[in-house]
Amino acid sequence: MMDADFFRRWMELAAAAVEREADRLTELDSAIGDADHGSNLQRGFAALVAALDKEETATPGAVLVLAGRQLISTVGGASGPLYGTLMRRAGKTLGDAAEVTPAQLAEALRAGVTAVAGLGGAKAGDKTMLDALEPAVDALGESFAAAAQAAERGALATVPMRARKGRASYLGERSVGHQDPGATSSALLIAALAEAEAA
Ligand code: ADP
Ligand code: MG
Ligand code: MG
């Protein structure tokens, strides 16, 4: 079972990973976007960690809803509303349970990913964050480590794809050969989940 402490640890580890990898995320976004993905997420996750320090979050659902709200209001760009929706929807799906099982988290994240697809209109193979998130939720039932591996593989698999959504899609064929920044940050987020479990 995972409690609110576990979820706060997950968000803190995700924030640390974003901090560590911000330059790389921005570099990836400079190749096929507008070179702001790292700084967008840095700003958002810093605000999220500050909000977790300040606000009371008694349940896993409350942690994720707060995370979603912070990401929506501070990240900006395309990824802010999308990551915010992922977290908020997952948090609302968990409801007000004090502890949740890995299966409940898998179900909640699946609802979040479905909401992201609904908001952004992307599907698998469009070279977006969904190419990491979908295989991750599929593998979550197995283990968090398996989900982290699936997300990492999914991010790498975006390299040969042609972007069909977001800024990168403006490049058409020239988007081929570059790893999607959002799929890369999604892999960091799922890796942080596996780290939180190991911690
Ligand atoms: P912006 O492109 O507005 O500057 P970011 O650089 O923060 O926003 O985020 C870009 C990432 O957002 C992309 O790499 C991609 O993974 C993701 N993204 C963009 N549009 C969509 C969409 N419609 N559906 C899912 N993910 C998307
Ligand atoms: Mg960008
Ligand atoms: Mg931008």
TrEMBL record:
It comes from the Bacteria. Gene3D superfamilies: 1.25.40.340. PROSITE patterns: DHAL (PS51480). The keyword Manganese does not apply. Keywords: Kinase, Transferase. InterPro entries: DhaK_L_YcgS, DhaL_dom, DhaL_dom_sf, Dihydroxyacetone_Kinase. SUPFAM superfamilies: DhaL-like (SSF101473). SMART domains: Dak2. GO terms for molecular function: kinase activity. Residues 5-195 form the DhaL domain. The keyword Transferase applies. PANTHER family: TRIOKINASE/FMN CYCLASE, TRIOKINASE_FMN CYCLASE. This is Dihydroxyacetone kinase subunit DhaL. It comes from Streptomyces ficellus.
